[in-house]
Amino acid sequence: MLTAIRSVSRTKVCRSVVPFERSNSAYLFSHNHDIIPPCASSHNSIVVPCGYKAAVEDSSKFQHQWDDKMERAWLDENNPNSLVAALFKCLKESPVDARKDVIGNLLVCGDTAVLVPDLGRRLALKVKRLLQSKEGEEAGPASPSSVADELAMTMVPVATQQLKPLADHIGVISCAPYRADLISWVGGSVYSAIWHRHDDDDTHMNWVFSPASASK
Amino acid sequence: MATSSATSSSTTASTPRVSTRRASRFASPRPFSSPLAAVRKIGRPPVVLEWGSAVIRVGYAEQFQPQHILPLPEEPFKRLEEYKTTRKLNTTSAGTSQQQQHSEEESQWYDVVSPIIRHVFDRLMVDPTTRRVVIVAVPFPVRAWEAAVKAALWNLGVPAVSFCNFLEVVPMAQGWKRGLAVHVGRDESHLMAHVDGHPLSFTYQGL
């Protein structure tokens, strides 16, 4: 059976939009966090995962109280793998005229947004504080003291000087009326509800037909 | 000449007003030639399957909450990681072609993915041949995973499948066009900016 699958997949299945080298979420389905995943951004450096499991002591237990490990994992500006550093990079790469609107509508969703409800507010406050601070325009540790710091030393620090005028425009929007962990599913539902009724030539959805139906 | 013109006018008067094309449109329905034609004709909403890092959310389009939230089993993924590590050790000693490695990785992914997808359709209690499937997954997924999912769906008889990433579809749930979507999952985080309804893929950051 697998031989059949393989023969089918060689001919029709393996049409991927993204080349294999750019597949940057190889660790995604791995539940083993000892394995360091490839960086999902466009850079080729190696980073450690930044999810709920990486930020709590015991991920099997529900932990809703904010602690230092969460602070270090998500909001530490010296950690190159934190949400703050990623947000600065994302802002810096976005168009200049749209940055004000982009930072003004910050939506934090996903499973962690349910488990740690104030993550979005804390993230916005931290970013605002960093942008309003006068010193430390270049993010990055002074001397490496851990693996994360060594990685940070190898990376180009994000210059926040250009982003300082955005400090007054930071805003977090709520996921309401949907739950933060379900909003991506609802988005997919709305998207497909709109476009599946259109003809296949007119729809925005990239339908890939099975070899059996295509042959008929 | 006069006779012929009279004949032609009489034939024009006797022809039915309803054209042949319209008559065929209201003809009795014929059976569908294929499952795909049936899906097109009936227009059933597709199955929406969000493949997260810890759970799978599955339901139908046009609804506002998933029907089922199914946990992903950890054991098959551990086995896959073990296979990958042993595979890396073996490839350093004995060189194999890249295409061969990809096909082997794809078949390993198929072993993991196929029972999960069968379980999903079992829980939905729906005939897979009657509905298309929309898969909401991470941006830039692993190619072998994508190929394995397609193969598993097509072996079940799903007529068509479409992939989209969850950072693209998050604004559609609420209707905003400019903003920054931050998705913090259980294993990883993703960020992407949206401007005027367009997801800017060059701003994508994945952690």
Tags for this model:
heterodimer, A: 216 residues, mainly alpha, 10 helices, 3 strands, 39% helix, globular, disordered N terminus, B: 207 residues, alpha/beta, Nucleotidyltransferase, domain 5, five-stranded mixed β-sheet, three-stranded antiparallel β-sheet, 7 helices
Structure characterization notes:
The complex is a heterodimer of chains A (216) and B (207). Chain A has one domain (34-194). Chain A is built from 10 helices and 3 strands, in the order αααααβαααβαβα. Chain A has helices spanning 2-13, 52-55, 68-74, 83-93, 99-104, 111-115, 119-132, 147-154, 183-195, 211-215; strands spanning 106-109, 172-173, 208-209. A two-stranded parallel sheet of chain A has the order 1-2. Chain A is globular. The two termini of chain A are 22 Å apart. Chain B is an alpha/beta fold and 207 residues long. In chain B, 46% of the residues lie in helices and 23% in strands. Chain B has 7 helices and 8 strands, in the order αααβββααβαβαβββ. Chain B has helices spanning 2-14, 20-25, 35-42, 75-93, 98-124, 143-156, 166-174, and strands at 47-51, 55-60, 68-71, 133-137, 160-165, 179-184, 189-195, 198-206. The radius of gyration of chain B is 26 Å and the shape is globular. The model of chain B is unreliable at 1-11 and 19-29 (pLDDT under 50). Chains A and B meet through α1, α2, α4, α5 and β1 of A and β2, α4, α5, α6 and β5 of B.
What is the gist of this entry?
With 216 residues, chain A is mainly α. Chain A has helices spanning 2-13, 52-55, 68-74, 83-93, 99-104, 111-115, 119-132, 147-154, 183-195, 211-215, and strands at 106-109, 172-173, 208-209. Chain B has a 5-stranded mixed beta sheet.
